[in-house]
Specification:
The complex is a heterodimer of chains A (466) and B (101). Helices cover 58% and strands 7% of the residues of chain A. Chain A is α/β, with parallel strands linked by helices. Chain A has 2 domains: 273 residues, no CATH class; 168 residues, TPP-binding domain (Rossmann fold), CATH 3.40.50. By secondary structure, chain B is an all-alpha fold. Helix content of chain B is 78%, strand content 0%. Classes of the chains: A alpha/beta (466), B mainly alpha (101). At the A-B interface, helix 1, helix 2, helix 3, helix 4 and helix 8 of A face helix 1, helix 2, helix 3, helix 4 and helix 5 of B.
Chain lengths: 466, 101
Amino acid sequence: MTAFEIQDAINAIYVVAVLVFILGLKAMSSPATARRGIVYAGLAMLIAVGVTFFSPGLLTDNFLWIFVGVAVGGFGGWYWARVVKMTAMPQMVAVFNGMGAGSAGAIAAVELLGHIGDLTTSGLSVAGGVIGSISIAASIVAFLKLQGWLTSKPIVLPARQVVNTAVLVIGVALGIYAVIAQETFWLLPFFVLLLLYGVLLALPIGGADMPVVISLTNALTGVAVGLDGFALVNGPLGDAGYAMVIAGVLVGSAGSLLTVLMAKAMNRSIANVFFGAFGATEETGGPVQGQLKPMEAPDVAALMAYANQVIIVPGYGLAVAQAQQKVKELADLLESKGVTVKFAIHPVAGRMPGHMNVLLAEAGISYDKLFDRDEINAEFPATDVAFVIGANDVVNPAAHRQGSPLYGMPILDVEQAKNVIVNKRGQGKGFAGVENELFYRDNCHMLYGDAQSAVGQLVSALKQTE
Amino acid sequence: MAADLWTALFIALLAAFTGYEVISRVPVLLHTPLMSGSNFIHGIVLVGAIVALGLATTPLEQAIGLVAVVMGALNVTGGYVVTVRILAMFDRSRPKGGGGK
């Protein structure tokens, strides 16, 4: 075959790969088809990457390095993703997303070094470099926070708005200057400043806002990949660029939508999440009437055992204590006593979109027992016991009161249940720094202790009554 | 601007709407796999990284290109394995088989 025909064959495969990516993403919107979707998308990716090796025009001198890179990265990613615990999934998603962003940034750097004279290619590469650099730096900070190597509290530096804006503006200006003056030297400070901007952007964001951050950096990486695709389209092996444009923009748009959904679930704008340093200052809201009423595990167990319906509301505390297995045991025991058990999942509970669903699924809790906020809120008045495990802001009735920092956030209305049991480690406030009035309500009792041991006590108390 | 870029722009426009439409009705249950799956799909960056390294001519370009390939490969395989693991837990048959004690 001539080079022309090989390129045609490669393009045909890219077209098929793109089609399968779209179908695979589509399949992700239903639990029944999701697994098939990812497997097909994986095969398409394998083939798309495989045929790229045969692109006519690749310098044979570089082949060894390509193989080494693919082997090292491929094996590393495969191994790391396999050995990591399910509870560490949020930070794994952040890391692998950061790697994609880093790759996009590095591609932009190679394009800039090689084609600084080509205004179109280098302009697009600067754009891809900007977004890729911000995304990898923010993803790594998110990883460090989720891993607990950095405090998950907002880190607020003095005059940060001014400093951050200056870093961004100077960084982008240096990139543009490098292209116009055709001086590659300025690319180094350009990339350094944008990486710094990504770090500065992510530092003030607190742990509970991580679902938005992970989702947004994912979308940003998609956009960076798309921009690199544009830059490559202009080059000698341009057709690979089209596949990148489609896949990148597809992810960018799907990821943006998911980000907006996350922000909406907290009734906050994306700008507020990124620039608000939410939770950094303690709010001194109105005085709360009443007192906290602790309840012992055996009493809670009895209350649940004689209930018709128990709704469990999991939050990040459940993930921290890794109590999902115990919760599954509790649910099974209650069901064996004829109690209906349901789970109410708030969209931003946990540290990544859908975090609670994954944890409970890991414990083997069937997903038809998990209910979205909109599906279950009407059921609380007819519920005997609402059991809140390590969740706080998402059940705080202050969200219904004007003037509260939480005002307007759609919450789970657990206070309407006949009894509310709240499992917490201590008497601290939620991430938003707002005292939770729910805990002081007449129908609310506190079950203190780490979720793992508290739920464990419930389980053994229930077993004794058998 | 070159004709190729206009073509790419039209493609990008359609892809943006496709991405939006395809996932606009995803239940909360699938937010994690969706995010993780799209994380895997932008691993297509590996294709670009291979091309960039393949065409690199100076040692500096080669070094940065190698970084791009390693990171892209990490993104692809890590994103894939994580997504498969997450989806394996949503298997409808497993909770019923394993949990009925």
